[in-house]
Amino acid sequence: AAEPWPENAALYQQLKEEQILLSDNASSLAVQAFLQMCNLPIRVICRANAEYMSPSGKVPFIHVGNQVVSELGPIVQFVKAKGHSLSDGLDEVQKAEMKAYMELVNNMLLTAELYLQWCDDVTVEEITHPRYGSPYPWPLNRILSYQKQWEVRRKMKAIGWAGKTLEQVLEDVDQCCHALSQRLGTQPYFFNKQPTELDALVFGHLFTILTTQLITDELSEKVKNYSNLTAFCRRIEQQYFEGHDKDCSTAAARSSKRPLLR
Questions:
Q1: Which domains does the chain show, CATH number per domain?
Q2: Mean pLDDT computed over every residue of the chain
Q3: pTM value?
Q4: Cα–Cα distance between 128 and 14 in angstroms, integer?
Q5: What is the signed CA dihedral for 10, 14, 17, 23, rounded to 10 degrees?
Q6: DSSP element (H, E) containing 68
Q7: pLDDT digits over 198-242, tens only?
Q8: Given CA atoms 211, 215, 218, 222 in this order, what sign does their dihedral have?
């Protein structure tokens, strides 16, 4: 039997309006979507130091009872241990396929978001550094931003992305969207009529890409080329986010009113 879910369960992320970056916003929205799909209420709390509060150093993280768990994968396992699962109805082949597509999203979309915000020089100077360091005084704001940039660029070098051009990264995004679009087809969700954690993950990234103002629209245009993916995002927004009250509003609740990254 499912354990009772505490009323004071909370999800932590960075400050919504002035600090959070594209990749973290996408990851946070994916977790929010997953918990909404499980019908587990969560209060979203924005903290400037959320990244440093997280046990893994990554956002979002949830605080449920006396447990603190960060990132979608571990959160899915934690929720499953409490008796709530979106993928129990899948057979082993479908579960393996779902995991493969989730890996694709993390390896392509998340990596592309990190590349864009930390390796594209114009984006770094105009958006990333001002936002990432915004809660802190000078020179700490610059020190923390450069520290993070060095960390991400080192990761990009390790996985072979450091030498890529922006055009190559956008092409990778297009290939990922093409694969997702083909898998979704005309179904409401990736595995037909019920959402799984894959749907939550894809929604988090695609919706954030579609509603985030960057230096150019090149990234969002790649997603807009696939009408079934944009319809999918709108469907999940309407079903799981519209009309839901949050302490720190979800991207979905505010997307049409103002850009998430200025």
A1: 10-256 (1.20.1050)
A2: 91
A3: 0.92
A4: 14
A5: -110
A6: strand 67-70
A7: 999 999 999 999 999 999 999 999 999 999 999 999 999 999 998
A8: negative
